[in-house]
Amino acid sequence: MATIFSGGSVSLFPFHTNKGTSSFATKAPTLHLKKPFSVKSVASLGTEASVSPAVQTFWKWLQEEGVITAKTPVKASVVPEGLGLVALKDISRNDVILQVPKRLWINPDAVASSEIGRVCSKLTPWLSVMLFLIRERSREDSVWKHYFGILPQETDSTIYWSEEELQELQGTQLLNTTLSVKEYVKNECLKLEKEIILPNKKLFPSPVTLDDFFWAFGILRSRAFSRLRNENLVVIPLADLINHSARVTTDDHAYEVKGPAGLFSWDYLFSLRSPLSVKAGEQVYIQYDLNKSNAELALDYGFIEPNADRYAYTLTLGISESDPFFDDKVDVAESNGFSQTAYFDIFYNRPLPEGMLPYLRLVALGGTDAFLLESLFRDSIWGHLEVPMSRDNEELVCKAVRDACKSALAGYHTTIEQDRKLKEANLESRLAIAVGIREGEKLILQQIDEIFEQKELELDQLEYYQERRLKDLGLCGESGDVLGDLAKYF
């Protein structure tokens, strides 16, 4: 029967996403400090007391590099999220608010052209850029010295939570995902130390700690832009100061790569546009990713949205190797775009994912229903599984799912009602994340349980394969009664 693991993850990064693509290619930027500065003013930069000397030095560096000019319509400022970009004048929708030349980007090309490019040539992009970030931060002569000066040591991403803070995620999928990611990063970094850092001490003269690795990992996790032309992993100084807002309901065309286009333009430019109209003195926002769940937002950036549309839960379904029809079922699954194990992301108040019910029925298939696994039906079996196969099969599916939901709900140390009561208080940011994640997962588990409870109540009213087949042959009436002498055989 199906195995449904409550600890399955919404995003399997850095192993694979549910679609098998690299997760580092899907991250947008943010800056959410663990302890934001207090907001004092939005006066012109240079005289404003609310920004730190490091930010002022960073801004001066950008001016010297020609990134900030008199025409730049935004400035760095202290905002509720920490640091952000505030409009110096009214900005219209789709107005360009900043452009950063490629020579200041941090990406695999920057690694390849650096002193460590040779020893990093066989590493995956994210590992090579991590090493580059760590090394450049330790160098006094780094081009990005002033940029590193404004970066936080950590965010509220769950990879930085203490053991006590992680206990608040008890029972959640996010806890298992976080622990898996941390273990993966630790193992990868230990290999880097052994194979790259220690054999090349001239290139890495400063000691590299596990904290350094997690700092670099968090920077990439939260700041790497995606969907850029020919770029899969790129950090853009200045552009990563822009914060996320749920008010922005599109993530299209907020940023792009331009050039080299003009006669005197020899460099590519990262161009960032405002997706909304903004008044002078207001913060400019973008949408990081409309498709991310709250668990992914918490893992990547260290925040969640109150929007229930972000609630998600992943059911992990598997065909047991002890199943007597294992090979046939795996063959059917693979022929229809699945495999021995399948992950189904379920979002709150949305229909069940496409393919989930046929897959469940395939896993539960057995007994007299197993004839569908014969080669004669191989091309048509998935169509048969799109609708109820038999009462026994449908009942088994419902029971397995409902049992899994009840088991998962029992793993939390609070109820939905307790979580909602907690949310009425002014919670510390990490506890607020944990409470929101717990509540969201439990609401979806209840939703799944209710869906399959309703299916159980309808078992006697459903039309199964046998009735459909007899109707096709003209041997069954519209009411479902078997015609003539055949009735005695059913």
Automatic annotation (TrEMBL):
* InterPro entries reported in the protein's UniProt record: Rubisco_LSMT_MeTrfase_plant, Rubisco_LSMT_subst-bd, Rubisco_LSMT_subst-bd_sf, SET_dom, SET_dom_sf, SET_RBCMT, SETD3_SETD6_MTase
Q: Which residues bind S-adenosyl-L-methionine?
A: E81, G82, L83, R223, N243, H244
Q: Which residues form the SET domain?
A: 65-289
Provide GO CC annotations from the record: chloroplast
Q: Which GO terms describe its biological process?
A: methylation
Q: What is its EC number?
A: 2.1.1.259
**What are the GO MF terms of this UniProt record?**
[ribulose-bisphosphate carboxylase]-lysine N-methyltransferase activity; protein-lysine N-methyltransferase activity
**Is the keyword Transferase assigned to this protein?**
yes
Where in or outside the cell is it found? Plastid, Chloroplast
Methyltransferase listed as a keyword: yes
Name the catalysed reactions.
Answer: [fructose-bisphosphate aldolase]-L-lysine + 3 S-adenosyl-L-methionine = [fructose-bisphosphate aldolase]-N(6),N(6),N(6)-trimethyl-L-lysine + 3 S-adenosyl-L-homocysteine + 3 H(+)
- For binding substrate, which residues are annotated in this chain's numbering? R223, R227, D240, Y255, Y288, Y301
Keywords (alphabetical) are: Chloroplast, Methyltransferase, Plastid, S-adenosyl-L-methionine, Transferase, Transit peptide
**Family, per entry:** Belongs to the class V-like SAM-binding methyltransferase superfamily. Plant protein-lysine LSMT methyltransferase family.
**Record protein name field:** [fructose-bisphosphate aldolase]-lysine N-methyltransferase
Name the gene for this chain.
25492966
